[in-house]
Design goal:
Peroxisomal Thiolase, Chain A, domain 1, eight-stranded mixed sheet, 8 strands, Ketoacyl_synth_N, Beta-ketoacyl synthase chain length factor
Length: about 270
């Protein structure tokens, strides 16, 4: 007998990708109401951070803050009360590049700011500073399966703790020469606010479990290229179904040979 899928309700969505600066613009493209136009990702200034931290904020920090805050605003929730799951296939690509450049010189002294921005949980730390959140926080990495791992972790927390959980899945590009080995084209990500109970703000019900079936691809070649080149955007087939308001199953990439079987029921 197979285990029942993990389930929750979606109350808020945040989104940033190349050419898609927020969830409303992405929703219109995913519905087919507007054509996709490629452009560099636009990252809002992290205005909630104190001035000193704002100056130090990397692209990853700006990205994750913008994603989470959009999802929270979409749901009308209080960011300070929310448990969080941060999931990314890598950390700050530009900071990693700068550290490697410094270590390749005769002066191998690393600045404290560069060092603390290099750790995988840096974005989660800046989130706590910006929002005042003191709730539990998980920080995950599962390479190209990082969105799926984050989704499963967030759903499990909702099921066990019966409290809302904010999932923030994101990725950033690396400069050359690292880019040749990890060719993520730009920064992008998605945030989902998941809750244990339905409310007037609920967008859809979601359930997820493992499957051997193949993951879904996107018919639009440019959007499919984003899905396959930026690990956080493995979420795009799910977001397309949410945008269209269609009920049904979505197959998402996970840890081969397993995939995720995600059931969506719009409200």
């Amino acid at each position: 007998m197979s285990a029942a899928p993990l389930a929750a309700w979606i109350e808020g969505i945040g989104f940033i990708a190349p050419g898609l600066p927020d969830w409303p613009s992405a929703r219109a493209v995913l519905r087919g109401e507007q054509p996709y136009t490629a452009a560099p990702s636009v990252l809002p200034a992290p205005t909630l951070l104190p001035p000193a931290e704002r100056r130090r904020a990397s692209r990853v920090v700006k990205l994750s803050l913008a994603l989470g805050l959009e999802a929270v605003a979409h749901a009308g929730a209080d960011a300070a009360t929310l448990a969080t799951v941060f999931s990314a296939s890598g950390a700050d690509g530009h900071n990693c590049h700068a550290l490697c450049e410094q270590l390749a010189t005769d002066d191998r002294q690393i600045s404290p700011t560069r060092f603390h921005n290099s750790v995988h949980n840096a974005a989660a730390g800046y989130w706590g500073i910006a929002t005042g959140a003191m709730a539990p926080c998980q920080v995950l990495c599962a390479y190209d399966a990082s969105f799926g791992a984050g989704l499963l972790d967030a759903l499990a927390q909702v099921a066990l703790a019966r409290q809302p959980v904010l999932l923030i899945a994101y990725d950033s590009e690396y400069p050359e020469p690292l880019h040749a080995k990890r060719p993520v084209p730009d920064c992008a990500g998605v945030a989902l606010l998941l809750t244990p109970e339905r409310s007037p703000c609920t967008l859809a019900a979601i359930g997820a479990g493992a499957t051997a079936d193949a993951a879904e691809s996107l018919a639009d070649a440019e959007l499919e290229a984003l899905r396959t080149s930026i690990p956080a955007l493995r979420a795009l087939p799910l977001l397309q179904r949410l945008a269209a308001g269609d009920a049904g199953r979505v197959g998402l990439d996970y840890l081969a040979p397993m995939q995720l079987n995600v059931q969506v029921e719009p409200c």
